[in-house]
Amino acid sequence: MRKPESRLAWLIRWAAVLVLAVATLWLVEPRVGRLWLNTLWLAAGACLIALPLGTLAAVAAFKTDIPGRRLAMLLFVGMLFVPLYIVTGAWDAGFGIQGWHTLSTNPHLAHDPWLHGWRAAIWVHGIAGVPWVVLIVGAGLRSVEAEIEEDAATCASPPRVLWHVSLRRAGAAFVVAALWVAIVATAEISVTDFFQVRTFAEEVYTQSALGTIDSAERGASPAANSVISAAGLWIGIALSTILALASIVAAGKLFADFADAPHRPTWIWRLGRRRWLAVLILSCIVLLVAGVPLGNLIYKAGIEVTSTDFGRVRSWSPVKVVSRVVAAPVEFRGDLQLSAVLGAAAATAALVVGVPLAWSMRRPRRTPWIRLGLLATCLAIPGPLLGVGVIHLLNRPADSPFAFLGWLYDSLFTPWLVQTVRALPIVTLILWPPLASVPQAMLDTAATEGSGWWGRLLRIALPQRWPAVVAAWLVGLAIAVGELAATVLVMPPLPGGATTISVQIFQMLHYGVDDRAAAISLVMVLGIATLTGIAAVLLKQREYWKQSQNRRKQSS
After folding, report:
1. Closest by alpha carbon to 128, among 173, 170, 74, 91?
2. Backbone dihedral region of 512: left (phi > 0), alpha (psi from -120 to 50 degrees) or beta?
3. Number of helices (H) and strands (E), helices first, in the chain?
């Protein structure tokens, strides 16, 4: 396992590269430099919220014996892939301009609501990043050698073992978690567009919606001083790629640590009578991440407004909540069906590409920079910029030799393509550790019998790792269905005004979170939580089988 000092030096090198890139961007393109500083400010604020809360929850769930930790992890996994626009709408339903808390404490908007502007954007990104931090830091804590922790526990108290051994040995996990929260903040526009915060991705989305990106590439007029130039776009993409590439390299180091760790029960802090404090901390974090947002949506879905002699009276009815949630799939069945078909096609395409890609990165002789760069670009490119790129690729003029691509531009191929690109890196990263853990001796035996690269993949690796493959497909489906930033730009007009459910909810939320928007958001949360829950169970089952095989080998 890599020493914490070397990890710190590695992190300092990547941070220096990023700072140098931002400084260069500021000199070459000052406007894009300011937008990227806003982006980094948003990412830093989100990390300051997500990392402490996620680390506390990870320690409580993975390193203590408190009751209810498995239920808490199930809730965290369920919230893992809930789209940001739903998380945004859920918090706005309680504390935004039309939120129930705002209407009860600030009915005439005598002052700003609690959720607005930068404060709201940082808070929502931070809370949405907590489940990712819990999962990543928890994996890092599980990779710490139990022997070292147990030896330290013989001469030090459990808190000191956690602080000086467990958390330090899991240093790579903190780097990956922080970088992942930052990547989401730099690539998404759901939160920033809702709360009117200017970041690089948000500015690209605004200008592409207004049609000024085209004028930038052709050479903007002198009056168009606010248009991002083509050079600024390319430098912005390069910065995003650097950030994502650092995240993937750090994730590879974490995977290596986890694979090299002995598979034996991890050291656990037996809290005894102090369990109540850990339970209280974990419960509060779960309440912030899942309880408050879902409670806001449930409350909004059940609000009834009746007219009386004294004016309009607002009340809440559980019957209306149930009826609204039950009716939402029927009311939005066209959008849900379209999203399911597109999402399944995108997840399948991402799996077809991701399986051989992850297999090719198994135990490489040298760092596969080209493949990592491809994954980093797909992971970090802002959604609006991806949409603009697909539009420029397919929407060719009539005199162009590629004019035949126009029929693809006016079809569902464009949203399928952007959703596939968004799902591909996550699917590949999920498959990377399971495929890398296939016993090398078994593969060497198959190679001596004449089995080639594809034969070893199809006949040995995939049959052994099918739970991970199914889990990756389910996660890809959840990502594709929830994709918004690029889909909203490339979605073609369809008969009857049909669109994907992500675009439909996003448009509804801009008019306020009413009972219809809250109900369909609850349906989406339940559906995506179910998919990710099944994927987590499959991955857990694969890990259980792996531990069972190791125990049998040790006993024999």
Report:
1. 91
2. left
3. 29, 2
Place of tokens 């931070």: 126
Write phi, then psi, for 313 (nearest 5 degrees).
Answer: -115, 130
Alpha-carbon distance 38 to 44, whole Å? 10
- CA-only gyration radius of the chain, Å: 24
Please give the Cα distance from 153 to 164 (Å, whole number): 11
pTM of the model: 0.83
CB count, 10 Å around CB of 271?
16
Distance CA 178, CA 79 (A): 18
- Other beta carbons within 10 angstroms of residue 297's beta carbon come to 27
Q: Identify whether 226 is part of a domain.
A: no
269, β-bridge pairs: 64
CATH of residue 332: 1.10.3720.10
Kindly state the tokens that stand for 543.
Answer: 């890990």
State which amino acid sits at residue 301: A
Cβ contacts of 174 within 8 Å, gap of 6 or more: 51, 55, 137, 140
Q: Which domain holds residue 236?
A: 4-221+231-303+313-555
DSSP conformation letters of 512-549: ---HHHHHHHHHHHHHHHHHHHHHHHHHHHHHHHHHHH
SS3 305: strand
| Whether the Cβ atoms of residue 372 and residue 249 lie closer than 8 Å to each other | yes
pLDDT tens column, 192-226: 888 888 888 888 777 776 666 654 444 444 344 45
In a domain, 526, yes or no: yes
Burial level of 546, CB count in 10 A (0-12/13-18/19+)? Answer: middle
Task: For residue 157, give the 3-state DSSP assignment.
Answer: coil
CA distance 5 to 169: 10
Tokens, residue 412: 């569902």
pLDDT < 50 regions, the chain: 1-5, 215-225
Q: Diameter of the chain by CA atoms?
A: 88
Q: Classify residue 308: in a domain, yes or no.
A: no
**Buried b vs exposed e over 519-539: b needs ≥16 C-beta within 10 Å?**
bbbbbbbebbbebbbebbebb
Residue 428 lies inside a defined structural domain of this protein: yes
Question: Which residue bears the tokens 């050079």?
Answer: 231
Give the tens place of pLDDT for each residue, 484-504: 888 988 888 887 778 899 999
Number of compact structural domains in the chain: 1
Q: Contact, 207 vs 228, CB < 8 A? A: yes
Both tokens of residue 325?
């949630």
User: b vs e for 453-481, b when ≥16 Cβ sit within 10 Å of the residue's Cβ?
Assistant: eeebbeebbbebbebbbbbbbbbbbbbbb
* Residue 542, burial from CB neighbour count under 10 angstroms (0-12, 13-18, 19+): buried
How far apart are alpha carbons 317 and 247 in whole angstroms? Answer: 46
148-156 contacts at long range (C-beta below 8 A, 24 or more positions apart): 149/266, 149/267, 150/267, 153/267
What letter represents residue 141's amino acid?
Answer: L
- What is the spatial distance between Cα 156 and Cα 151, in angstroms, rounded to a whole number? 9
Question: What pLDDT is attached to residue 213?
Answer: 60
